[in-house]
Amino acid sequence: MGGNRWIRPTGRLLVLACSGMALGACEYADDSPAPAAASPEPSRPAPPRPPTADPRVAEVAARNQAQLDSLLGPSPEGVVLAGSGGLGSDGFRTSVIGISKGSYTVTAACVGVRAASLSISQSDRRGGTAHELALDCGTVTSTKVNLEVGPVSAHGFRMSTEPGTAAVAGFWIVPAP
Length: 177
Hints:
Shape: elongated
Structural class: alpha+beta
Oligomer: single chain
Largest sheet: 4 strands, antiparallel
Helix content: 10-25%
Number of strands: 8
């Protein structure tokens, strides 16, 4: 009979503890005024303005391109890949999805620096196929290369540490006679 005496007080104590926790989770309104809304700050700064092209560099590049076009002359018939571009920073790249297996003549030139290089590659081939043409700027270089069936990439870049922001190079590839 005396064993049930502690159950009722313990039960009341549990009920009081639970109701205290439940009331503690409630939110009560405060009589103080709401803080003024702060102006929203951007999450990140605005991107910098793109650099403006130096008109003198553009003028020299246009002059170099005209001289390059004069050096290379008119494009021959049967060109399978051709390109030209600036040699500043990383140079220029171009490619073609696929060509036929065979011998090809690569003709290239550069203007605006002392030396440049033209890399012709077929990286999809096992071990890769690569041909490097060293270019003495101001002259035309021509060589024959053997290429396999498949894509061909060309990358023109300068081979000197001299500034070359206005330097240009160009090339074309035609089937060899």
